[in-house]
């Protein structure tokens, strides 16, 4: 087992959800927000996409760290919603959110979350992803508009938040809840074992 100092986590995320979730591990952590470019030119699968972007976020933060900061495990994560082979990220505006929710309501979709862990000192990396199936209730257009008016869909992949009032439009899930919220804690704890970090 490594010393406490080397067990620290460096969360490469601006997401308040991810910041809250990383706290639950009870390990020392800092946050460094990556300015990674999230555009991907080539056509790739959802699992490839979330893994690629998770690694890009973690690697960008590694490049940003000052020499004296280069210890700890950098964690990058990315979440997308997939329905009918279409990959849905965050909505660009309210119309986009309406289009997404209108498509998702009354059916099952998948949420993919990638996680990349990069050792700040050595560059050693492990990357994986997790998928959760989510069933969204049927909604009228008026209900969709009322949900959009809450502001909650704005910065969420697929235009909803299972952890918010959006919980009321979800009838069930199969898989890890935290994959939907944006940081698959169970998978992350497994990946951290590669670096001799045990959460429990
Ligand atoms: C489906 C769903 C997504 N989300 C959020 C998680 C992510 O923050 C967001 C997907 O956007 P991401 O691009 O994965 O992440 P981000 O831009 O918010 O943060 P960063 O890149 O700095 O880490 O959608 C929820 O909070 N709840 C949900 O139910």
Q: What is the structure about, briefly put?
A:
With 200 residues, the chain is α/β, with parallel strands linked by helices.
State the share of residues found in helices, binned by percent: 25-40%
- Our measurement of the CA-to-CA distance between the termini, rounded to an integer number of angstroms, reads 13 Å
Number of helices, where a helix is a run of at least 4 consecutive DSSP H or I residues: 6
Low-confidence stretches: none
CATH class: Alpha Beta
How many domains, as an integer? 1
The overall pLDDT, averaged over residues, is 95
Using DSSP, what is the number of strands? 7
**Distinct ligands, ions and cofactors found in the model:** thymidine-5'-triphosphate
Morphology: elongated
Assign the CATH topology.
Answer: Maf protein
Provide the β-strand percentage band. 15-25%
CATH architecture heading: Alpha-Beta Complex
GO molecular function, one term: nucleoside triphosphate diphosphatase activity
Main location: cytoplasm
EC number: 3.6.1.9
Site (Important for substrate specificity): 17, 79, 163
